[in-house]
Specification:
heterotrimer, A mainly alpha (111), B alpha/beta (392), C alpha+beta (242), A: 111 residues, mainly alpha, C: 242 residues, alpha+beta, 9 helices, 8 strands
């Protein structure tokens, strides 16, 4: 599945995830992220929806974020081809979760 | 313009040979560097297929025939090495000669495809595993030694994009310290899936022509090169140019990006000047690493400004031949040596609008020059920086 | 003459604790081995970073990391940036220079069974050409089961293979003097030879273990011969420390 910055098609038919589903997705993404860039020294309960990847959040560098992108692509069978859209998607844990939730519901399946 | 003292050279360069994306021999490479011909496609510069598969033209070597047939790194090394031998008037390597190879992926083409086939399906033949496990990096050098019947000092340097500048530096030191009389130096880098996909994964490769020092530069072009140089003691009668100094220093800043102010690059350049007993004002031209990546070009220009109160003209020729990784130092040194001999300055092809943050003087047109001392920079992953000074 | 000021052989048991350090979170197994050895020979050494160099010698390099990179590429068409960055031979030296704040020269050499010796030779070049005052020299290789059988085809059948890392801190006169004028042992010279039928007496052998073997034999006064698996050997001429 290819992702471009034109997300209008997807947004037309999206049922929202329930709070429980979203919370589970956030937990899944937290674990995926922690494992992909080896930040196991940061306790999971200190990583929140709003935690940013760069800077004061997780303090990752640009190569870390590229690795996270690939990890998300592999796990959820996505491909992010638009670098600008990618920057917005990979801003925080929550923005990644929102994006993944959007793609899986518009595809009609969850992976 | 130049006030440097003669006689502090470490070694002479007496022969050069190359096989690159521009073709066989140093002439097509030199011509492209002068006229800016750009022939790389989609950001890659492989050696033309007809050259790769046209067989050995050097004397026939029957040992190691399976690797000679299936490892272009090895067969092309012999051909490029042979070009250098012919120019230098060498016919063999003696026990008091040295052999130093700079490379990052070595003979990867020999094992890569079968390794991936094995990983896809372990029930596939173990050939991939056997080839990979049986061909460590240093085997390129030891294979060459076996073919050339060389029993002298040899070394394989794998310091990423500094591999072949370090090889030239070490060879120069071996000669000037009397460890060896002469030294064959090779920079060998062939494209493989690892490097093709790897640089893309770091988002530092560009499908467009690379644009060193340009405000819109968006990444490097990866290319292949097999380049050999014959080095002998300083003052050799048939010398093309001399190596007068080198410096090696580290950034300790990031695994794949340079120190933002080019700190290690600065100290490498200063080290080279100090060894050559030259002042910054003695350098007539800087052949930059200038890959066209956002980080490299800015950091390198800052380092240049920190070393040179009035920097000389600067250019990168990667806009013509791409970035040959471990072989880039040797490839670009060949261009520097030829430029010194023929009194030319090579332009920074690929540049359209200079980055306003980069205020050094970049060479835009080919010109004539009475340059006597040229500095060659390389900056590599792992934060290592190596600078050479070539002189005539 | 090369003064070996410090020696260090990494212990496998120390790796787990190192892995937990935030600054080593991107380190591969081999980098942890190398770090453990390098750190061990910098204990109590106070030289500014730019006067220190680092040379890493490894016969096989980042075997595991490279294999995993190719696996993701082959099976999923996924190019993983971390793995790529770590797969290059020079990444170990890069990581060590970052973690140990070494800003002098850094070099990686890879010369099969002579990777350790080659690294010592490179350190001598760097010291003689005044690139640094003292140099950390690390020899390291790791065991990866997938490739064990293949690598073993270059070794005698009965040779026990191992993995590990060992390091020396070496200097010439000026660095030795600056660091207290004491040396654990002294290397006068080294050479390579070809001896038909030289049998390897080594156990737990890895390609770059020339340094570990040198450390083990450092109390030798005179020649220390290291037979290699292919019948060649290296010979260090040693003297006791000062």
């Amino acid at each position: 599945m290819e992702i471009t910055s034109d997300a209008s098609k997807a947004s037309a038919k999206t049922p929202e995830k329930t709070p429980a589903e979203r919370a589970a997705l956030v937990e899944e993404i937290k674990r995926l992220l922690v494992d992909s860039v080896n930040i196991q020294h940061i306790p999971l309960n200190e990583i929140h929806d709003t935690t940013t990847l760069f800077g004061d959040g997780l303090g990752l560098d640009s190569v870390d974020v590229l690795e996270v992108v690939v990890a998300v692509e592999r796990k959820y069978s996505l491909k992010i081809r638009d670098a600008k859209a990618g920057q917005q998607i990979f801003r925080s844990i929550g923005s990644i979760a929102d994006f993944v939730a959007l793609q899986s519901s518009s595809a009609g399946t969850s992976t | 313009m130049t006030t440097g003292m003669p006689g502090s050279a470490l070694a002479s360069i007496t022969g050069m040979g190359s096989i690159t994306a521009l073709g066989e021999g140093t002439d097509p490479l030199w011509q492209a560097a002068l006229d800016g011909t750009f022939s790389l496609q989609d950001g890659f510069g492989p050696i033309p297929e007809e050259i790769r598969s046209s067989g050995l033209t050097a004397p026939d070597f029957s040992t190691l025939i399976h690797r000679l047939q299936e490892s272009p790194a090895l067969s092309l090394s012999l051909r490029a090495g042979w070009q250098a031998f012919q120019q230098a008037g060498w016919t063999s390597l003696n026990p008091d000669d040295g052999l130093i190879i700079g490379t990052t992926t070595g003979q990867a083409n020999y094992w890569e495809a079968s390794l991936m086939a094995f990983l896809r399906d372990p029930s596939n033949s173990e050939e991939g595993v056997n080839r990979y496990g049986g061909t460590p990096l240093g085997m390129l050098t030891s294979d060459l030694q076996e073919i050339l019947k060389h029993h002298g000092p040899a070394q394989t340097i794998a310091s990423a994009c500094c591999a072949s500048t370090q090889a030239i530096a070490v060879a120069s030191h071996w000669i000037s310290s009397g460890k060896v009389k002469r030294c064959l130096v090779g920079g060998v880098e062939l494209l493989c899936e690892l490097t093709r996909t790897g640089f893309q994964s770091l988002q530092i490769a560009s499908k467009e022509r690379c644009r060193p020092f340009d405000k819109d530069r968006s990444g490097i072009n990866l290319s292949e090169a097999v380049v050999f140089l014959c080095l002998e003691k300083a003052g050799a009668e048939n010398r093309l140019a001399q190596v007068s100094g080198f410096g090696i220093a580290g950034d300790a800043s990031h695994m794949t990006a340079p120190h933002p102010e080019g700190d290690g690059c600065r100290r490498a350049m200063q080290g080279a000047l100090s060894m050559a007993k030259l002042a910054p004002s003695d350098i007539d031209w800087i052949h930059a690493h200038g890959t066209g990546s956002r980080h490299n070009d800015l950091a390198e220009s800052k380092a240049i400004q920190a070393v040179f109160p009035a920097p000389p003209p600067v250019s990168s020729t990667k806009g013509v031949h791409g970035h040959a990784l471990g072989a880039s130092g040797a490839l670009e040194s060949v261009l520097v040596v030829r430029a010194l001999r023929e009194g030319r300055l090579l332009p920074n092809w690929g540049l359209e609008n200079q980055d306003p943050e980069i205020t050094i003087n970049i060479v835009r047109e080919p010109g004539h020059s009475s340059a006597r001392h040229v500095m060659k920079n390389t900056l590599a992953f792992g934060g290592v920086n190596t600078s050479l000074i070539f002189s005539v | 003459m090369l003064y070996a000021l410090r020696t260090s052989i990494a212990e496998k048991s120390s790796l787990a604790a190192l892995r937990a350090r935030p600054e080593l979170r991107k380190a591969t197994e081999m980098m942890l081995w190398a770090f453990a050895a390098a750190k061990g020979c910098l204990e109590g050494v106070s030289l500014p970073g730019h006067e220190l160099g680092i040379v890493v010698g490894s016969g096989q390099g980042e075997l595991e990391t490279t294999k995993e990179y190719y696996r993701a590429l082959a099976l999923e068409n996924a190019a993983r940036p971390f793995l790529f960055q770590n797969s290059l031979h020079h990444s170990t030296a890069g990581m060590l220079s970052l973690a140990l704040k070494i800003t002098g020269p850094s070099v990686t050499v890879s010369d099969s069974f002579f990777s350790g010796e080659s690294a010592v030779d490179m350190a001598a070049t760097l010291l003689d050409s005044r690139q640094c005052l003292a140099c950390v020299v690390v020899g390291t290789d790791t065991l990866v089961p997938t490739f064990d059988k293949a690598i073993r085809t270059r070794f005698p059948k009965d040779l026990e293979r191992g993995e590990g890392a060992a390091a020396l801190l070496v200097a010439r006169e000026e660095g030795w003097d600056k660091l207290g004028g004491k040396a654990d042992f002294v290397i006068e010279s080294w050479s390579r030879g070809f001896e038909a039928g030289a049998k390897s007496k080594l156990g737990g052998y890895y390609e770059a273990d020339g340094i570990a073997q040198l450390i083990a034999g450092r109390q030798t006064e005179g020649p220390l011969t290291q037979p290699k698996p292919d019948g060649t050997f290296s010979r260090f001429q040693l003297r006791k420390g000062t």
